[in-house]
Design a protein that fits this description.
mainly alpha; 2 helices
């Protein structure tokens, strides 16, 4: 059974190879091609203070996450006992 005419794939008035609003069409993307940037470019774009490792800040993020998880668990328990 074929799809109805309104559901058939269309080009929406565009032609092959023509850019829409100045952007390349998705079909022109080649996932096997090398990216247009190097890893060094990405690392150079990140500020130097982001590369400094701080164990106390990392531990504070872990504790913050545990506090949020615990608060969600308490809220779920309270909400469950309130609705039943």
């Amino acid at each position: 059974m074929s799809p109805p005419n309104s559901m058939s794939p269309t080009t929406n008035g565009s032609t092959n190879g023509v850019a829409i609003n100045g952007a390349k069409k998705l079909l022109d993307f080649d996932p096997s091609a090398a990216p247009p940037f190097k890893i060094a470019d990405i690392r150079a774009a990140i500020p130097p203070h982001c590369w400094v490792k701080n164990p106390w800040r990392s531990l504070s993020y872990v504790l913050r996450d545990l506090l949020v998880i615990l608060s969600f668990a308490v809220a779920a328990t309270k909400l469950d006992s309130w609705t039943v």
